[in-house]
């Protein structure tokens, strides 16, 4: 009894949808929380400034009504009685002479009038941090009566009435936003599952169609090819004039069969229907077999196929047949785009520091422009080099008659084995394909 496992494609799509839900919600919540935080902070600061303005206005009116002569003693008499009430409101008052000397204060840790505050004509607001004391919000204002500067009035309000609620608000918003994002992530995962259900049903129908198409398309083509081969095997002289047509039909049928196999393979890969075996595979042996198979083709095209000595065991967990197809596609592609007299080299090495096996297929062929490299793994894409060479019988072997699916299949096989495939090329110097796998020989 086999247990159905979740399709990795749908699981990945579901994770991405849920993650996007959470990211968008987090951004919106952070913007809202930041705006709300700044609004509350500004409101608290404005409230303190309004309180300071009110105290300053009361004091200034009292000074104008009293028409003081001895400002120092009268200031002390008028406000000493209210010092207890002022202290209850945590407000301190400092009175300075026109020269900036302190004359009277309710603050035991007062700060002298700074040089930049002397000669001011408008109230100045600032937040100060006194040593070993709470920060203060201060307003310094010149007191002018009948055009005469009587002194400077400074009113201080403790800053904790802003910092304390703002810190608590920041903590509450941070906790609330984190919880909300977590809840949205869970809801996003649930909603993504609901949204993916129709897609999953369509995928099941596509899977069934792929299986049916695989069966229905293979059989007619196999029958046609078998009949053509039987007809070609008939030595009857009546069929001699039809032999060239039958041979063309056989070639086209064989090519059509390969194309259908390639398309079905890519369709299964896209849908996650790989059904590939997972067993230890010796890449050294696979590469030797690929080299032996392609050696005849390389010799016919007068190309040197070099396979240096390999380590006895380069083990990768995967499907042996598909790994062989991966390197067959790369080597045949290198041979197809290498002119006569060129060289194709297959190398493999173990990178112990990264626990990776790296295989390179390097040719001395035509090369690919950098602008084309990003497209060579696309399906049905075939790079057509500029025919700037005089056409000859040998120039035809520079171009392949393939379907343009070989490199796309190679990339799909590499990815299904958790590997990577990269390409480097220079026009006129050749191309190098590099395939990297995780070493399983532990």
Structure overview:
The protein is of the alpha+beta class. The chain is 52% helix and 18% strand. The protein has helices spanning 8-66, 71-80, 83-88, 160-233, 243-271, 283-300, 320-336, 370-373, 406-416, and strands at 92-96, 102-105, 124-128, 136-145, 148-158, 279-282, 304-306, 315-318, 343-351, 356-363, 420-426, 430-438. The chain has a 5-stranded antiparallel β-sheet with strand order 2-1-5-4-3, covered by helices on one side. Strands 7-9-10-12-11 form a 5-stranded mixed β-sheet, covered by helices on one side. A two-stranded antiparallel sheet has the order 6-8. α4 runs antiparallel to α5 (243-271). The two termini are 31 Å apart.
